[in-house]
């Protein structure tokens, strides 16, 4: 109950006021976040689950897209650090009364908010906030652009389970075109020295993505034997009005993870999925509930990653 | 501000990890909850209203049916014990993105939730959670099955006002067929030695209910002179599409509590109602606001009962 | 972290159990609130942002009209004092199940709520609550009647920026007819010795309002040179179905604040707006973001005013 900032050590100096994406972070900065997350695990498992280091800090969740899971993860993370949280949503907010997005954010900041966690359907929305606010801004997903804390929790899970990220081969499978999770994972994994293969239907894997430094594959079975980790992106029925693949059944057949594919893969294959999962689509129940799946570890690590990011930005803001 | 678990004594050893219903609790276990609720009343009235015994514990409200009142009661109860709370609702949650009910719950648990309070329209839903979660599960109403904390607060109110439950005659009036409140009250009251009469329109009082050990009556005026407590179940307009009784006016005339009926009843008759009440239907304003009504005591006792249940399950979970 | 009530001094004895409007407060009582708000600014800026003086107090937000901004301001204010908060909204509440407004409030109070913050479309709704509840009631806007904390934060902002209120000339511009903000400002400003001019389209400025002691004007340009502060009421598109003025463009032309009008006004003119603002309607971006605008100060002061009001009522209630 009386941990202080002194008990928490940060591997390398932290200079960022905002966490907008992994594209512009260095390998050292990413490692700093992962190390701090590990440290929060030790701290909260060893003793009290609730710290007091961010007592008096107010974190606002500014979610313009529905996301119970990410919002709750940020909420619990903030409160574990001793911070208070307030939630804003698009419906019922001042935006529906004609206020601009930036005015809404400035108003929230003027209420004494120190950190803003923002999800928005428009790529760059959190960057716009960061330019106008003194508060620290965390991007919790901006359209098809980035979702840095998701990629960080994926990397933390891999590092915990396999001991390292450098030198591993990670396959991102599914809708690469629209996935902010894929984009953030690509930036983060490459910076930490992994080999990244993106794999999915040709309609959902743009050739141009090789410019980022990844390899492209259209046949999951061909790449599986080389792969240490497979990250199964969600088929977002609610987003994809257009028909990017013929049918769900065909998608599941070609790109879904199932028992057969597990048996053809490396022994220690890690199966990640950002969730919420569609059982029978991205993976079968046999895989989801099997020993290769680290899906629930990802959720728990999400808490630790968000604690680390909130802590670093709050400290940078002088809290 | 510095009460510890040592200040709180539990009458009998508590072994249950979950609170799913009163059907499978013993009389001793029910008494343990009621005793602990009394103790919380003394503790919070005497000194500070806010305890710290569940500091670091996270309670998730997983409500798939609207219920501001029950959810708020659990929220305030949890925070009085020093716990943090997070709310989930069906709308906007991952369920609408195709996730299964159990996956949603496992995800919430992986975020570090210790206790899950669940309301669901399907009987048995909290039992399904209990089979999959390490977290403690409290049933806050599952379809027409059970609503144990409501029955416990009814019993606490009776015990506080009349000094005992054993030997009393309690009438449950109204829609017995669809009422989880009736079912939980029946189990609890019988275990504690009360005589229970269920009374309502024949369409809403199934004959088979006598198998549980209760008596059945269709005429409220005939049984009133024998009754110590009458519990007026809510007419749930929002649930009953079918016509189980001819009209609201007729229901109120035959089964509503009014001044005339009060005058024909025992002197110290207690009038309970789970609420929200429909004035002029289950009871007249004269009765609702009169000296026999203990409706607001029930609400206050709801807080104490929920504190007791949360505390017992958190302690069992080793928090 | 360990401020106590002893550190907080109140200028004059406080006797009110509720804050329903400024009409019935004395000048001394209003000054007491403003002084206490100033004090909270010093306390929270100097040291820890979070106090503990209302630890154990529960504040319920009972909002029957959407208002993220006011509700959040009350929430943050309450938590800065160490209180817990619970939110109720019209949708999903017991009201939709047939419960009366007063029964809902009594139920909430029975759950241990100490202070109720109420917004309602019906003038007098908070007064009805105040007659039935032991809890303190704060009016957060009742129809077209009053919105006392908004007027108080406007006055605090004026006093901070100009050093006094007595002797100043304040223009309230826009829809005076439907504005609870105007009404509360009129009462408060007149009590503290300001001269108040209301100005707007004839359809929205009833002649009878002079009975309150204000002057009426229909031409903003004529009065501007005499004015120290101009408070630009929101054009409430969502409320005004009827056509009170020909077009938005015409409104902006005649009553909107713009660079030209700023240049014709007094040098130190203060521009207030309760927000959320419609850029290009009540004021141009040039004015909103310019040196005369104190809009964001108003938001920050809202927090301090609400802390002061919650504190005074909680103390009066013996918390």
TrEMBL record, chains A, B, C:
Catalyzes the condensation of carbamoyl phosphate and aspartate to form carbamoyl aspartate and inorganic phosphate, the committed step in the de novo pyrimidine nucleotide biosynthesis pathway. The keyword Hydrolase does not apply. Pathway: Pyrimidine metabolism; UMP biosynthesis via de novo pathway; (S)-dihydroorotate from bicarbonate: step 2/3. It catalyses: carbamoyl phosphate + L-aspartate = N-carbamoyl-L-aspartate + phosphate + H(+). GO terms for molecular function: amino acid binding; aspartate carbamoyltransferase activity. The lineage of its organism: Bacteria, Pseudomonadati, Planctomycetota, Planctomycetia, Planctomycetales. Heterododecamer (2C3:3R2) of six catalytic PyrB chains organized as two trimers (C3), and six regulatory PyrI chains organized as three dimers (R2). This is Aspartate carbamoyltransferase. It comes from the Bacteria. Carbamoyl phosphate binds at residues 69-70, 119, 147, 150, 275-276. The gene is pyrB. Its EC number is 2.1.3.2. It is an enzyme of class 2 (transferase). L-aspartate binds at residues 97, 180, 234. Residues 17-160 form the Aspartate/ornithine carbamoyltransferase carbamoyl-P binding domain. Residues 166-313 form the Aspartate/ornithine carbamoyltransferase Asp/Orn-binding domain.
């Amino acid at each position: 109950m009386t941990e202080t900032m002194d008990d928490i050590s940060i591997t390398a100096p932290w200079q960022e006021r905002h966490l907008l994406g992994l594209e512009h972070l260095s390998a050292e900065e990413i490692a700093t976040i992962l190390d701090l997350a590990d440290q929060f695990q030790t701290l909260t498992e060893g003793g009290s689950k609730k710290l007091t280091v961010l007592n008096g800090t107010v974190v606002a969740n500014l979610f313009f897209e529905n996301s119970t899971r990410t919002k709750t993860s940020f909420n619990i993370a903030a409160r574990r650090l001793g911070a208070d949280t307030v939630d804003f949503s698009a419906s019922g907010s001042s935006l529906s009364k004609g206020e601009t997005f930036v005015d809404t954010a400035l108003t929230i900041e003027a209420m004494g908010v120190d950190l803003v966690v923002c999800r928005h359907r428009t790529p760059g929305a959190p960057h716009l906030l960061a330019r106008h606010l003194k508060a620290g801004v965390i991007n919790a997903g901006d359209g098809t652009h980035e979702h840095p804390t998701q990629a960080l929790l994926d990397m933390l899970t891999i590092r915990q389970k396999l001991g390292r990220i450098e030198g591993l081969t990670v396959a991102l499978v599914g809708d690469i075109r629209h996935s902010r999770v894929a984009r953030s994972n690509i930036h983060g994994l490459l910076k930490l020295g992994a080999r990244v293969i993106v794999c999915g239907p040709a309609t959902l894997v743009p050739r141009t993505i090789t410019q980022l430094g990844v390899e492209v594959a259209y046949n999951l079975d061909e790449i599986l034997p080389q792969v240490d980790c497979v990250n199964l992106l969600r088929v977002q029925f609610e987003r994809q009005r257009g028909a990017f693949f013929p049918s769900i059944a065909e998608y599941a057949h070609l790109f879904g993870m199932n028992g057969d594919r597990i048996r053809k893969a490396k022994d220690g294959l890690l199966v990640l999925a950002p969730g919420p999962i569609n059982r029978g689509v991205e993976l079968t129940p046999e895989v989801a509930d099997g020993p290769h799946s680290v899906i629930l570890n990802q959720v728990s690590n999400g808490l630790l990653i968000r604690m680390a990011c909130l802590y670093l930005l709050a400290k940078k803001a002088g809290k």
